[in-house]
Design brief:
It is built from 17 helices and 15 strands. With 466 residues, it is an alpha/beta fold. The strands form three sheets. The protein has a seven-stranded parallel beta sheet with strand order 3-2-1-4-5-6-7. It is globular, with a radius of gyration of 23 Å.
Length: 466
C-alpha cells in the first residue's frame, strides 16, 4: 500500500486563508489521497477555529536587513521593467520612502544607494543573493528547518508569493531538497514586482499570468509555471450558497420593492477620496427616485479599511444607503491579520446576485459581478477635494494590469460626474452592459475553468510528487 504524500500548505500570512483554508481546497486534496498539514505562520489558529491539523511557526522574526533589501529589490525590478519595456508606468507602483528619524533615514539611504547603482541584472542578482544569505542566518530559518526535518513533508505549497515572512521557510525546504511551489495571489501582483519568494514551481491563474511571470522574471523557466486557475471565484458558481431574494432582503432589512446598486469600497491607498464617489452615487439614486425609480444602495466596505471617512456620507444618506459589512474577523492589528470567513463567501455571492450592478474604483469586483452576469461601473473623474498630496484615482486605470482588458467595453465608465445619473439609468433600463466583454476579460485573467481550480492545483501537485 502506497504511503500518502504529505503536503505542507504554507500560510506565511493571512492572505492565503481565503483560497486555501476556507474553500473546498483541503477536501479535494484529501480525496486525492494526500496527507495535508497547514504550516502556519499566522496568528490565526486553524486547529482551534477549523479543526485542521497544523504545524505552527512560532517565530516571525526576519533578518533586520530583509525589509531594506526587499524594498530595494522591488524598486530595482520596476526600474528594469521601465527601461526594458520603454515605459514610465512601472515606477508608479512605488510608495514614497520615509526619511524622518535616524532609523528610517538610514534604511532609505541604503535603498537609494542600491537602486542608484544596482538597477541592472547584476545589481538585482546581488540583492536577491543578499536576501537569501541573510535569511539563512536567522533563528526562524533554523526553526523551520527543524520542523521540516521532524515532519518530513514531500512538498511545500506556499499560498502567497508576497510576504518576506515566507523567504526563510522556503529556503529551509529547498536546502533540504524538498520541492516548493508558490501560488501567485492576485491579478495585479506580477507587473507590480511583488514576487518576493523564489520557488521550484509557480502556480498561476491563467495563460495571461504565465506570460507575465516569464516576461518579468528571467530566472523562471516556462517548465516551472503551471496554469491552474484560482479558488477565489469558485463560490460565485456554487448555487447552494444563494439565498432567495426574499430571504436575503429580510436578513438585511432591505426593501423588497426597491432595486439595489452595490457600491464596493476601496482601501485608502487605491481611492483616498472614495467616500465622495459613494456620495455621488447616492445623489444620482435620489434624483432617479424623484423620477419614478425605487432604488437603494448596498455599501460593502473594503475588508481592510478601518477609516471613519465614510461615516458622514452614510449618516447623511441613510435613507438611501444600507451598509452590509464583509464577514471578516480581526485576529491582529495589521491589514493582513484581518481574516475572511466561510460565511463571507456566501454573503458576497448573494450581494452580487441580488443587486443590479456594482460601482467602484478599479476593483477586481468587476470579475465577481460578471460571474453573476452583472455589470460593473468604474468611476474615472477627479473630485473637487483632490489636492496636492492626495492620489488621483485615475492613476489606477493606467496600470499595466488594466491593459489586459479585451476592450474598453469590458467595463462601464463614468468620466464626468454630471453624466452619472444618465449612465446609472441606462444600466438599470438594460441599455448599457459590459457583461459580454467582461466575460472575455474574466476568461483572460481568471481562466476559462473557474470552478476547477482546486482539482487543477492538486493534479499538478500529484504529478510533481510522483
Amino acid at each position: 500500500m502506497n504511503q500518502k504524500k504529505k503536503i505542507f500548505l504554507f500560510l506565511p500570512d493571512g492572505v492565503g486563508l481565503r483560497n486555501f483554508a476556507l474553500t473546498r481546497f483541503k477536501d479535494v486534496g484529501e480525496k486525492n489521497g494526500f496527507d495535508i498539514q497547514y504550516w502556519n505562520n499566522t496568528v490565526f489558529s486553524l486547529e482551534d477555529q477549523l479543526g485542521y491539523s497544523e504545524v505552527k511557526i512560532d517565530s516571525t522574526k526576519i533578518h533586520p536587513m530583509t525589509p531594506v533589501y526587499s524594498r530595494a529589490r522591488k524598486r530595482i525590478e520596476l526600474n528594469i521593467f521601465d527601461k526594458k519595456f520603454k515605459e514610465t508606468v512601472y515606477n508608479t507602483y512605488n510608495f514614497p520612502q520615509s526619511y524622518s528619524g535616524i532609523k528610517n533615514l538610514f534604511k532609505s539611504l541604503i535603498v537609494d544607494t542600491l537602486v542608484t547603482f544596482g538597477s541592472n541584472q547584476n545589481g538585482l542578482q546581488y540583492v536577491r543573493n543578499k536576501i537569501k544569505s541573510n535569511e539563512r542566518t536567522t533563528e526562524k530559518y533554523a526553526l523551520c528547518k527543524a520542523q521540516l526535518k521532524e515532519h518530513r513533508p514531500d512538498f511545500v505549497f506556499c499560498t502567497n508569493q508576497r510576504p518576506t515572512q515566507a523567504i526563510s521557510a522556503l529556503l529551509a525546504a529547498q536546502d533540504l531538497g524538498i520541492p516548493t511551489a508558490t501560488f501567485i495571489f492576485s491579478w495585479d501582483n506580477l507587473p507590480k514586482a511583488m514576487t518576493v519568494v523564489e520557488t521550484d514551481y509557480y502556480f498561476v491563474w491563467s495563460e495571461h499570468m504565465k506570460m507575465e511571470l516569464l516576461k518579468y522574471h528571467s530566472y523562471v523557466d516556462a517548465s516551472q509555471v503551471f496554469v491552474t486557475g484560482t479558488p477565489q471565484f469558485e463560490s460565485h458558481f456554487d448555487r447552494s450558497l444563494l439565498q432567495t431574494k426574499e430571504a436575503f432582503f429580510e436578513s438585511h432589512q432591505l426593501d423588497l420593492n426597491k432595486k439595489y446598486i452595490c457600491y464596493s469600497g476601496d482601501d485608502i491607498v487605491t481611492s483616498p477620496l472614495d467616500q465622495f464617489y459613494l456620495e455621488d452615487l447616492a445623489k444620482s439614486v435620489i434624483e432617479l427616485n424623484q423620477n419614478g425609480y425605487n432604488l437603494g444602495i448596498i455599501y460593502r466596505k473594503c475588508p481592510v479599511d478601518f477609516t471613519s471617512r465614510y461615516d458622514e456620507v452614510l449618516e447623511k444618506y441613510k435613507d438611501v444607503i444600507v451598509s452590509i459589512d464583509p464577514l471578516w474577523k480581526p485576529i491582529g492589528t495589521s491589514w493582513n491579520e484581518i481574516m475572511p470567513t466561510k460565511a463571507d463567501f456566501a454573503l458576497q455571492a448573494n450581494v452580487c446576485e441580488h443587486t443590479e450592478f456594482v460601482a467602484n474604483i478599479a476593483s477586481s469586483m468587476v470579475f465577481d459581478f460578471v460571474a453573476h452576469n452583472k455589470s460593473c461601473l468604474f468611476f474615472d473623474y477627479e473630485q473637487p477635494q483632490l489636492k496636492k498630496g492626495i492620489r488621483d484615482i485615475g492613476q489606477n486605470y493606467k496600470y499595466i494590469h488594466f491593459r489586459s482588458m479585451p476592450s474598453k467595453e469590458a467595463a462601464l465608465w463614468c468620466y464626468d460626474k454630471s453624466k452619472l445619473t444618465a449612465i446609472v439609468q441606462s444600466i438599470l433600463d438594460g441599455n448599457s452592459s459590459n457583461v459580454t466583454e467582461g466575460k472575455k476579460w474574466f476568461d483572460t485573467i481568471v481562466g476559462e475553468k473557474p470552478t476547477e481550480a482546486c482539482e487543477m492545483i492538486w493534479n499538478r501537485i500529484k504529478e510533481l510528487t510522483k
